[in-house]
Fold:
Amino acid sequence: MNLRRDVFQAIADPTRRAILLLLATQSMSAGAIAANFDTARPTVSKHLQILTECELLRQEQNGREVIYQLNPSKVKEVADWAEQFRQLWDDRFNKLEDIMKKYI
Amino acid sequence: MEQKTKIHAEENKQEIIITRDFDLPLALLFRAYVESEIVEQWMGTKVVKLESQKQGGWRFETSDPMGNVHVFSGVIHDILENSKIVRTFQMENTPFEPQLEFLDFESVSDSKSKLTMHVIYRSVVLRDQMLALPFAQGINMAHNRLQDIVEKLN
Structure:
């Protein structure tokens, strides 16, 4: 599995972001999740599969149903994705500031 | 403590706004963007070309720890001293398309200045991918490290 590509795709897709948001407050069956979207059920299933493969979601068998829940530690990483972009720039700008202070 | 560097990225928009307050006079902040030797230091890159003029070209080369050379390049569309730079940015040999960057430099006081970087991407998906890149690279690096450790165990 290409871990980088999968997490990458998971967060780039608006439907998958909506699924993550939906599951933030409760665990849900695939059917209940699909009911929230206009997209075809197999499409939603594919999204759930991708999210599960990159460990953003966990599956749990409940009788005949599969229940999906968030994997909080992984989601925390995703929630930080923009934060890492910010830190990258913050580091660069801190360096710029330090270097230029020598010219004051 | 308030963060000095802020990122503003709205959902479903193909732009990012980066703002930063500097404890530097405006002229020094601007200088850090136009002098090759200074850009090299804070960007951690080799500056192959930096023509700080209208329709000037720029080209940076960075080597990663594996020895791969990454090339970044673009064109300076417009430049106004101590005020603004409008330029394109592209990572060569990647599927990412060029982005348009508007850099606005402002004086806040004699000793403080502010930079606003407005970056526009071709699509929302591309914007999100670029925003996620440091995160994705972090994941990839952690993954490689893990692999190194596991290989040593064998």
About this structure: Residues 1 and 87 of chain A are 28 Å apart (CA to CA).
